[in-house]
Amino acid sequence: MFRKIPLAIFLLFLIQFTSCSSNREIISYEPLEQILKKPLNEWTLGDCNKVIKSYSTHNERGYSKMKKMSANNVKVYITAVPLHEQTIKARVKKEALVRRYTDNDFILRLKEELEFFTNKTVDINSGKIILKSGIENQKLKALSFDVNIENITDPIVGLEMYNAELGFFIESKDGKFGRVTELYSHYYEDYFILYDQVSAIFTFSLIDDSSEKIYKNDILTEGYQLVFNGLSVEPVILKWF
Questions:
Q1: Contact 176, 208 (CB under 8 A)
Q2: What does pLDDT average to over the chain?
């Protein structure tokens, strides 16, 4: 069964998610690969936005708020950002630029977020991102996503479901899947009610029901999809392929 994560963590990422949306016009023209090769202390606000946007996806390319309902009766529009090393670096760096953190404060924030969501940490002395200590801690067992779910029915019809997250999965290309293990939302309770939109952090297990790893390696920036059953007529799928 899933468990909820701390409110403070959710609020931080909710602020960053909405901040990202309002600043998407500030996008770097550098290719993603070039940004990722630069030292983190050289990343600009535009670089951070480019990294976050590059790894974000949604269930309908070209969706327009003006048209609302899609032709195939999709009831929700879902956007999601995976919380892996690259996006966490971009989000924490963006936070540091906006709030003018000292170098030390930035390193501590980055260390905190990496340790919470990944199998990485930061060497305080060198500032380098490294694997956590201990063989067991180095294994990536879960992947979290900052998810925003919007009701796009028109006229609007409230969507209600008990324990909706039991129908949400992370799935590999070969069909192996993991379940939701943790979630947090200020408005998301056991009984899922969606009238407008809701934001939540979902953490999916990378271990399947047979206790087998879904993926052979721990570098997960693509090769998976999120499947949301029960929120629309057909499963809503977000792909990172």
A1: yes
A2: 86
Q: Is the pLDDT of residue 13 over 60?
A: no
**Helix, strand or coil, per DSSP, at residue 114:** helix
Return left, alpha or beta for 100; rule: phi > 0 is left, psi -120 to 50 is alpha, else beta. left
The residue among 83, 93, 147 whose CA lies nearest residue 120 is 83
The pLDDT confidence band at residue 193, using thresholds 50, 70 and 90, is confident
**Does the CA dihedral 68-72-73-79 come out positive or negative?**
negative
Q: Which residues of 34-47 are buried (b: 16+ CB within 10 A; e: fewer)?
A: ebbeeebeebbbbb
Could you count the other beta carbons within 10 Å of the beta carbon of residue 217? 8
Which of 155, 185, 176, 165 is closest to 230 using CA atoms?
Answer: 165
